[in-house]
Amino acid sequence: MEWKYFADLFHESWHKKMKPWVESEDCDKVYKFLKSESRKGKQIAPLSKNVFRSFKETTFGNLNVIILGLCPYHSFVNNKPVTSGLLMDCSNTGRLQPSLEKFYEAIEYELYNGMNLNLIKDPSLSYLAKQGVFLGNVSLTVERSKPGSHLEIWKPFMEYFLGEVTFGTGVPVVFLGKEAAKYKKHLGPLTRSFCLSHPASASYNSTRWETEGLFTKLNTILKESNGIEIQWIKK
Known about the structure:
Elements: H1 15-22, H2 25-39, E1 44-45, H3 54-57, E2 65-69, E3 76-77, E4 80-81, H4 98-112, H5 126-129, E5 133-137, E6 142-143, H6 151-165, E7 173-176, H7 178-181, E8 193-196, H8 199-205, H9 214-226
């Protein structure tokens, strides 16, 4: 593929890093696959303009944490994708999905012991993305009602992202779910990583999502290395 057709999908800070992949055969295969599936009448999420939204919302120079789930929401409302292209973000509908509900509840429990009476459960997670929290999935697209359906086609991309783009940055990486955690082997030897269950699993089981102190740990790492902390709860 020609880079000029993709450049606007990424913040300019990612251009030098992402151009080699876009111009590779692996990108050609992804593009042809998605086009072929679309011609067959299959509905794909997110909308094409939002596939790389996480690279728009979070700049490379402000990259502080990477959180990766399995794939985008596979559900549709009024024949439109629920997913916006950011992990767990519900800004397209303005209504929280169960996984995002569990995400907020667990963070509030970890950081405030369940006592934050002013908790804001924003359907949009842009407030985190703007702080340098990269919210992505190991599969950037999915067929309607078929979770994990595009995992294999995006595998080379994710290997490139973790093995080439973020290698050596020192940015901690969080994997949500067993499938996402399989990509841990592509990280650099000194990269701090965390593997947790996905909040969706807590929703399925009607339990609280166990964070294992993740957000406190991440802020400790960032405080020690960059002198900053992420505001995990919107104020």
